[in-house]
C-alpha cells in the first residue's frame, strides 16, 4: 500500500498572501503537492480561471453540492459560499500525493474534526495595517468589502492557537522557506512513520 499523502491546510486572513505564497512554491518547485480547487458562489476576478482557481458556481449548484454531501467542509465568508469538494481530496491522498487546502479558519476547524492528521498552518501578516495595505494594493475588492475582510481578520487571528504552525508572511521568500521546513519535518514525523510501519505489519 502506498504511503498516504499529507493533508496541508493553509489558512489566514484574506489578503495575507496565501495565494501568492502557494504560487511561489509551485513556480520555484519548492515541493510537490496537489491543490484542492474549491467551489465558490463568488464571481471570478479578472484572470481567474474556472476549474483552476475555483469552480465558480451558482447558489443553486452550491446548495445541491451540500445536499448531496459532496463537500468536505463549506462556509459562508462575508457574502459568498466556499467549499472543498471531498472526493478529489480523498483520492489524491490515497494516491500518496500531498494535498494543499487554502481555506478560511472556520473551514479549517471543520476539516480538523474529520481529518485530525492534517497539518494546519496559519499564515499571518506582520500586522493589520500591512494586511489592509495588501488588500488595497491588490485592488480586487471595494473599500466596503475590504473593511468586512479586515473585521473578519481580527476574529481569525484569535484562532491561530488552534493551528500546528504559525508562519509570518513578511516576505514571500521567508514564508516559503518556513512552509518548506514544516512539510519536510512532517514527512518524517514519528507519528507518520509509525503509522506507515503499522500498515506494513498489518499487510504482511
Ligand atoms: N510578503 C508579501 N509582501 C508584500 N506583498 C505581498 C506579500 N504576500 C502577498 N502580497 C500581496 O498581497 C496581496 C494579497 O495576496 P494574496 O492574494 O496572495 O492573498 P490571499 O491570502 O490569497 O487572499 P484571499 O484569501 O483574499 O484570496 C497581493 O497583491 C500580493 O501581491
Ligand atoms: N471554508 C472555506 N474557505 C475557503 C475555501 N476556498 C477559499 N476559502 C477562503 O475564503 C476566503 C475568501 O477567498 P477569496 O478568494 O474570495 O479572496 C479566503 O480566506 C479563502 O482562503 C473553501 O473551500 N472553504
TrEMBL record:
Essential for recycling GMP and indirectly, cGMP. It holds the Pfam family Guanylate_kin. It catalyses: GMP + ATP = GDP + ADP. InterPro entries: GK/Ca_channel_bsu, Guanylate_kin-like_dom, Guanylate_kinase, Guanylate_kinase_CS, P-loop_NTPase. Keywords: ATP-binding, Cytoplasm, Kinase, Nucleotide-binding, Transferase. Its main location: cytoplasm. It is an enzyme of class 2 (transferase). It is found in: Cytoplasm. Belongs to the guanylate kinase family. Residues 5-184 form the Guanylate kinase-like domain. This is Guanylate kinase. ATP binds at residues 12-19. GO terms for molecular function: ATP binding; GMP kinase activity. Its EC number is 2.7.4.8. It comes from the Bacteria. It comes from Lactobacillus kimbladii. GO terms for cellular component: cytosol.
Amino acid at each position: 500500500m502506498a504511503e498516504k499523502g499529507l493533508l496541508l491546510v493553509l489558512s489566514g486572513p484574506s489578503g495575507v498572501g496565501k495565494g501568492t505564497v502557494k504560487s511561489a512554491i509551485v513556480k520555484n518547485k519548492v515541493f510537490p503537492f496537489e491543490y484542492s480547487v474549491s467551489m465558490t458562489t463568488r464571481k471570478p476576478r479578472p484572470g481567474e480561471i474556472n476549474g483552476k482557481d475555483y469552480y465558480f458556481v451558482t447558489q443553486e449548484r452550491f446548495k445541491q453540492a451540500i445536499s448531496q454531501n459532496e463537500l468536505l467542509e463549506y462556509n459562508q465568508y462575508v457574502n459568498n459560499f466556499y467549499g472543498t469538494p471531498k472526493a478529489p481530496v480523498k483520492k489524491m491522498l490515497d494516491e500518496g500525493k500531498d494535498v494543499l487546502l487554502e481555506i478560511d479558519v472556520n473551514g479549517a476547524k471543520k476539516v480538523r474534526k474529520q481529518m485530525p492528521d492534517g497539518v494546519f498552518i496559519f499564515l499571518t501578516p506582520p500586522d493589520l495595517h500591512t494586511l489592509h495595505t495588501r488588500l488595497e494594493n491588490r485592488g480586487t475588492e471595494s473599500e466596503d468589502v475590504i473593511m468586512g475582510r479586515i473585521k473578519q481578520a481580527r476574529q481569525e487571528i484569535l484562532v491561530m492557537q488552534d493551528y500546528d504552525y504559525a508562519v509570518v508572511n513578511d516576505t514571500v521568500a521567508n514564508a516559503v522557506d518556513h512552509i518548506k521546513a514544516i512539510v519536510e519535518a512532517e514527512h518524517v514525523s514519528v507519528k507518520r512513520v509509525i503509522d506507515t510501519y503499522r500498515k506494513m505489519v498489518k499487510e504482511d
